[in-house]
Specification:
The strands form two sheets. This protein has a six-stranded mixed sheet. The protein has helices at about 10-15, 15-20, 30-50, 65-70, 95-105; strands at about 55-60, 85, 110, 120-125, 135-140, 145, 155, 155-160. The relative contact order is 0.14. By secondary structure, it is an alpha+beta fold. The chain has one domain: 2-Layer Sandwich (Muramoyl-pentapeptide Carboxypeptidase, domain 2). Residues about 150-160 have low confidence and may be disordered. It is about 30% helix and about 20% strand.
C-alpha cells in the first residue's frame, strides 16, 4: 500500500524480529493514517531536502507484542504509527536531526546512539495530529540529554 509518493506501508511494518519470532506486525487503519501524516509532514520533505536520497526506515510501526519482544514500552509512539527511526545514506544523522528541528513540526526528535561519527546511531522522529511538543533529545545509550550536540566533540563523546 502506497502511503505517499515515496513511501510504502511495507517499509514501516518490516521487522526481522517479528519475522523471527512469528509476531504479526500489521498496522490498522488509525496507525496507517498516522504513518501517512508522518510521511507528508516530515519524510517527504526530507527526501526533497536531501536530493531525493533514500530515506531508510529502520523501525516504523511496531505492534505492542513486537515492542515487548524488543524491550520497548507498549506505550511507544511506534505502536500508534506516530514514530519512525530513520537514516539517509551518506548524510550525517546530526545533519538530518538539525534540519528536522529547524524546519518541521514534530512531537519528539531524538538523535539516538550518536557518537560523533556521521553514520553513527539513527534519528527517531514522531509527529502527532494536533499539538506537537517539539521535544529535542540526544540519547547516548545511557542518558537522555536535552537538545542536539554541537560540533564540539571530545574522544567521540559529547562535550557540555
Amino acid at each position: 500500500m502506497q502511503l505517499s509518493k515515496h513511501f510504502k506501508l511495507e517499509e514501516f511494518e518490516k521487522s526481522s524480529t517479528a519475522i523471527r519470532l512469528g509476531i504479526t506486525n500489521k498496522a490498522g487503519a488509525g496507525e496507517i493514517k498516522n504513518l501517512t501524516d508522518l510521511c507528508y509532514e516530515i519524510l517527504e520533505r526530507l527526501k526533497v531536502k536531501f536530493d531525493n536520497k533514500p530515506v531508510i526506515i529502520t523501525s516504523g510501526y511496531r505492534s505492542p507484542e513486537l515492542c515487548e519482544a524488543i524491550g520497548s514500552k507498549v506505550t511507544s509512539q511506534h505502536t500508534t504509527g506516530n514514530a519512525v527511526d530513520l537514516e539517509i545514506p551518506s548524510v550525517s544523522n546530526l545533519a538530518i536531526a538539525l534540519w528536522i528541528e529547524n524546519n518541521c513540526d514534530f512531537d519528539q526528535l531524538i538523535l539516538e546512539y550518536y557518537t560523533g561519527e556521521p553514520s553513527s546511531g539513527w534519528v527517531h522522529i514522531s509527529h502527532s495530529d494536533g499539538s506537537n511538543r517539539k521535544q529535542v533529545l540526544t540519547f547516548d545509550g545511557k542518558n537522555y540529554i536535552n537538545g542536539l550536540p554541537d560540533a564540539k566533540w571530545s574522544s567521540g563523546k559529547m562535550s557540555n
